[in-house]
Amino acid sequence: MQRLRSRRQRHAVLVPLIGLAACVLAACGGGPAPAPGSLPPGRASATGGEAPSGGVTSAPADGSAAPGDASAHPARPGAAPRTPPMDVYAHDRPGMLSPAVAEFPERVYVPNSESDTVTVIDPRTYRVLRTFKVGRRPQHVVPSWDLKTLWVSNDDGDSLTPVDPMTGRPGRPVAVDDPYNLYFTPDGRDALVMAERENRLDFLSPRTMRLRRSLHMPCRGVNHADFTADGKVMLAACEFSGRLVAVDLRARKVRAVVDLADGTTRHRDLRHDGTRHHGTRDGDVSHRVRHGSIRHGFTQHGSIQHGSTRNTAMPPGSTRHDSTRHGFTRNTTTQHGSTRNTAMPPGSTRHDSTRNTTMPQDVKLSPDGTTFYVADMAKNGVWLVDAGKFRVTGFIRTGRGAHGLHVSRDSKLLYVSNRDAGSVTVVSFALRRPVDTWRIPGGGSPDMGGVSADGSRLWLSGRHDGVVYVFDTGDGRLIRTIDVGAGPHGLAVYPQPGRYSLGHTGVFR
């Protein structure tokens, strides 16, 4: 009986003490204790909450709370911590210049494809500082992976001209076969030349630009690309076949082919492919024919000549003017009895985009890394392609001749240049639809370009008009039109924020 009484007394004392301790802890902590691995105090995250210790913060990819954003769905007591939303452009914010480029003067470099020159512009005064000669048909000005050099891709000149961003002066050209466009693997190990005429992807040393290996494409006109978030796969657009090609960069082989005309995807088993040059060539395209108007058995982006049988008949009187792609009329009236196979509607003009049912152009990965956006000149809009399965998931109509894609500095918007419509469509990544359209008064031909380092200006070349357009990204006004050479194409605004360059006119991570 005495033992029982003693136990009851101890129990009566312990219960109030436990309750008091719980109350004290609740009052001091303001709520339940954090779960293991939760965010320590004082670490601000991109979503306004807390950031993991030692982690890389990233801004939300759209204007609203992204999926997985803890601010949108508060975690329940004891729940596992939420991962901050991915943003592949998190290091492209204003003020995030790499030390490698911090001393470079701000400039805009414009390759003039028909003049064989590069025009250098001061973006603060909008004055042309100088124009210098380069190789034949310069197409793009491309920042190197290490950010220290700008490369001018002289397509028909079979060369790359280096430019010193500190002085804005050209160096000695390097011989490279058919460099229509230039990219770099995310790890910096390879330079990737988009040999558009040759239907090849060439792997080069990023320092010496010496050829390491070639990969033949199962399509025609490979010219633009972007990379998956993990950097393992490149999705490239083949303009003249209406296809997209997913390339495994480590294996250097084609993983999948997407046919935009019917929306089908063909996957390839890399385990049983031991060929050095993977992929099949389309039709009767010959592997390599040196310079001339007929290359690969079809016209080299010019008017059909010498009995060519390209299979795309044009109605009498129709004209097409993509006149500056390689410095001469790309798809104009046929000659010498040639036949072409894509009829243009009567009265149509300057619609290279009507040559095929699909003509994919620029490619950009969504900030969250789930979707590739692919501009299509013939479809007048942008395809959405799953970045994991490489399947078409949607389409956004923008304007005639949808061509270039540029991401805003806050990762919320995609600027789509509509070359035939003379406009820029602003697409929301969050809504996956257009939210604004900027029109060039009197029309124009906006092509490729880039966003200023502070995000306030969008610079685009006027491909058919010999000018450069400057838009205010705040209200969409065209604030400047600057005269340059003939056929301006892939201009580069430099320097820009980012840790390294993936190529083209400035795709940074």
Give an overview of the whole structure.
There is one protein chain. By secondary structure, the protein is mostly beta strands. Helices cover 6% and strands 34% of the residues. Mean pLDDT is 78; it is low at 1-8, 11-74 and 272-354.
Strand content: 25-35%
Give me the Rg, rounded: 27 Å
**What is the CA–CA distance across the termini?**
77 Å
So how many helices? 1
Kindly name the structural category: mainly beta
The overall strand count is 34
Average the pLDDT over all residues and give the rounded result. Answer: 78
Inertia-based shape:
globular
* Helix-residue proportion: under 10%
Low-confidence stretches: 1-8, 11-74, 272-354
What does the main sheet amount to?
A: 5 strands, antiparallel
What attributes characterize this protein structure?
single chain, 509 residues, mainly beta, five-stranded antiparallel sheet, 1 helix, 34 strands, 6% helix
List the helices and strands and how they pair.
Blueprint (H helix, E strand, L loop, with lengths): L1 H28 L77 E6 L4 E6 L4 E7 L4 E6 L6 E5 L4 E6 L4 E2 L3 E2 L5 E4 L6 E5 L4 E5 L6 E6 L5 E6 L5 E6 L4 E6 L4 E7 L4 E4 L26 E2 L2 E2 L60 E6 L5 E6 L4 E6 L5 E6 L4 E6 L5 E6 L4 E6 L4 E7 L6 E6 L5 E6 L4 E6 L5 E6 L8 E3 L6 E3 L3 E2 L1
Antiparallel strand pairs: 1-2, 1-32, 2-3, 4-5, 5-6, 6-7, 6-8, 9-10, 10-11, 11-12, 13-14, 14-15, 15-16, 16-17, 18-19, 20-21, 21-22, 22-23, 24-25, 25-26, 26-27, 28-29, 29-30, 30-31, 33-34
